[in-house]
């Protein structure tokens, strides 16, 4: 079963994800991430200690712990493309 993970992300990492320039996340593997899971990336501004209200969805496409600190993984990601269907 695929899971949905809501994750806080700083603006300097969120913007490249949103623009399609960054296709990975390095995260502590405390959620048992699996290929096919959905990440809800929620931009968080540490200067204001608040979420900005800008979010994006990404699918986990690959997972590795190669050359990471213990308990951390690299999640390969692909941004979801949203389509609006007019009936």
From TrEMBL:
Matches recorded under Pfam families: DUF3850
Gene3D superfamilies per the UniProt record, alphabetical: Hypothetical protein
Segments forming domain DUF3850: 4-76
Matches recorded under InterPro entries: DUF3850 (IPR039440), PUA-like_sf (IPR015947)
Protein name: RNA-binding protein
Naturally occurring in which organism (per UniProt): Lactobacillus taiwanensis
């Amino acid at each position: 079963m695929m899971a949905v993970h809501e994750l806080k992300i700083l603006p300097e990492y969120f913007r490249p994800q949103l623009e399609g320039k960054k296709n990975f996340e390095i995260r502590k593997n405390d959620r048992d991430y699996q290929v096919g899971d959905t990440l809800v990336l929620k931009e968080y501004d540490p200067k204001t200690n608040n979420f900005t209200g800008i979010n994006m969805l990404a699918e986990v496409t690959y997972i590795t712990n190669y050359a990471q600190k213990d308990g951390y993984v690299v999640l390969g990601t692909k941004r979801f493309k949203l389509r609006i269907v007019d009936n």
